[in-house]
Automatic annotation (TrEMBL), chains A, B:
One of its GO terms (molecular function) is UDP-glucose:hexose-1-phosphate uridylyltransferase activity. Its cofactor is Zn(2+). Its EC number is 2.7.7.12. One of its GO terms (biological process) is galactose metabolic process. Residues 183-298 form the Galactose-1-phosphate uridyl transferase C-terminal domain. Belongs to the galactose-1-phosphate uridylyltransferase type 1 family. Keywords: Carbohydrate metabolism, Metal-binding, Nucleotidyltransferase, Transferase, Zinc. The active site is at residue 164. This is Galactose-1-phosphate uridylyltransferase. Residues 3-174 form the Galactose-1-phosphate uridyl transferase N-terminal domain.
Length: 335, 335
């Protein structure tokens, strides 16, 4: 029996419908990897633009080997930092010049690995790179939002296999954030509480969708999951700003442990799935510190998104979040 | 040089960035088709649920061969019509029972063809099937929205190759429609004009993104196209309700001609692309007859949607709509 569930933040509904998984299928898809020259390997540092940040051994030089995490501008950047931020009309429409930052975080020198095999230390260093770049770009007052994200696997939009994530900093606030914040503000006006804090408390109370929790984080499948095995990592403490984490080394370390714990279950249960990772955090320039609550969304890309979902924003999910949480909970993490 | 463009309806921005197309790529994807027993072929009518509507020769019987368009309930339906529409709380969340209709429109008895090869008559009959089912389901007052859509090709979410489209009728209004209507109402309050009518007039005036037009329709690439070759078919006359078309046979015929003209260009330029087709029309039960304007969106699925787009609803498009319109305009349709 299927059921409709509403996301508590936006007007987004999903259909949880397990019957849909039984459909016959004419299509067989295969994927192979072609090994090209990799611009992210040791020795190839000069095939990327000059590095913006690296964690490297003290006897090594910038833009040479010896690093363990390296951040560079995206060579095929969607936005450029050296142009003027210009807003203008175009007939009845609005346009803005392509000002912004687009960076690549090379997560490890190792070409053939994935985040579930990272050491705890390596995972922690990746979060430090995120935080350093996030807080540095935030200083540019033209920037209104910073999205940190990762595409893993072709289906998730990756073009290169070498482990990396990306950061885009823009002069506009993207629509999904506007919607989330509007939803969070409506909830706050009605209840005088943060909706994300309420989700944490309610999920802990019913304990049907939590995979595990630590002192400061819960890892759970959201009630209105759009996709099979969609997972959120959410701080149990209230904070609207991911960048604030820089002030607390212990919590960064804990987040690395929690991530490693989750990814090692996730890669085993779903057998090396393509996925997107997204850090949702408050935009700058508008106060939503009481209402918004940063969190990480992990979206497996194991099903194709069809026309109905595109047309409506109304998702059909054939695996209930309760079942997904159960499977991920049972798996032993490797830490 | 990239540029940010805002959709005039929602808060959705896109980045038009042609440089992105030049990225190196580690992944090679291949797709093959396995020929299974096809429930939509002549002679297999009893492997679908009983038909709801068919256009067939007068000497043939229901649920036997002799039809040219056939509509049946989806065997793997996401929603069921024979359950009570029940809205209830679940802790802090909202849920609704999985009431609704999910139907399949089998567009032709021919297994191996696609819409670009349909005769004009066949295309027209498909629109008649849409209209008959749309207006029939609209009578059920529990239904608030009807989405007609098509998934063509695996990447667009199709599971079967036999030409078909689908219809989902739901008790809730999906979030994208709510957003579009909110945007259209804001525009109307400000300008006292329909934003879609303004788009038609402005696009005709500048003539940079129109592929072609007929007496009653324009076929164009929207200014803030999210995807390469995204195309909208829009009535040049104001009408919020797709179902109203049933009253005017000539316009249905014209829409079939326009569609065939477009798809034959589209299939040649993009070489049989996977795509989604979506008919956007006003929901029921809330008056938006002045502000909303039905239209058809065609979304090619030739690029993967990556994490950034998912996380933000902020799309990066590597083909400008002006360039896409130019290419589609030059191609000769086969009519």
């Amino acid at each position: 029996m299927s059921e409709l569930r509403k996301d508590p933040l936006t007007n987004r509904w999903v259909i949880i419908s397990e019957d849909r998984a039984k459909r016959p299928m004419n299509y067989v898809e295969e994927e192979r990897i072609e090994e090209l020259y990799c611009p992210f390997d040791y020795g190839n540092e000069n095939s990327t633009p000059n590095e913006l940040l690296s964690f490297r051994s003290p006897d090594s030089k910038a833009n040479e080997s010896g690093w363990w995490v390296r951040v560079v501008p995206n060579k095929f950047s969607a936005l450029k930092e050296n142009i003027i931020l210009d807003k203008s009309p175009y007939g009845i429409y609005d346009r803005v010049s392509g000002f912004g930052y687009h960076e690549v975080i090379i997560e490890t020198p190792e070409h053939n690995t994935n985040v579930s095999h990272f050491s705890l230390k390596q995972m922690e260093e990746v979060f430090w790179a995120y935080l350093k770049r996030f807080n540095s770009l935030k200083e540019d007052k033209r920037i209104k939002y910073i999205q940190i994200f990762k595409n893993y696997g072709k289906k998730a939009g990756a073009s290169l296999v070498h482990p990396h994530s990306q950061l885009i900093a823009t002069s506009i606030v993207p629509v999904n954030l506007i919607d989330e914040i509007e939803g969070a503000k409506k909830y706050f006006n009605f209840k005088n509480r943060c909706v994300f804090c309420d989700i944490v408390k309610y999920e802990e109370e019913v304990n049907e969708r939590i995979i595990f929790k630590s002192e400061n984080f819960i890892v759970f499948e959201p009630y209105a999951s759009r996709f099979p095995y969609e997972t959120w990592i959410m701080p149990r403490f209230h904070s609207h700003d991911f960048g604030e984490l820089e002030k607390n080394e212990d919590i960064v370390k804990e987040l690395a442990e929690v991530s490693k714990n989750f990814y090692s279950r996730f890669f085993k249960v779903l057998n090396n799935p393509p996925y997107n990772m997204l850090i949702h955090t408050a935009p700058f320039g508008e106060d939503c510190s009481k209402e918004y609550h940063w969190h990480i969304e992990i979206i497996p890309r194991i099903t194709n998104i069809a026309g109905f979902e595109w047309g409506t924003g109304f998702y059909i999910n054939s695996v209930s979040p309760e079942k997904a949480a159960d499977e991920l909970k049972k798996e032993e993490p490797f830490l």
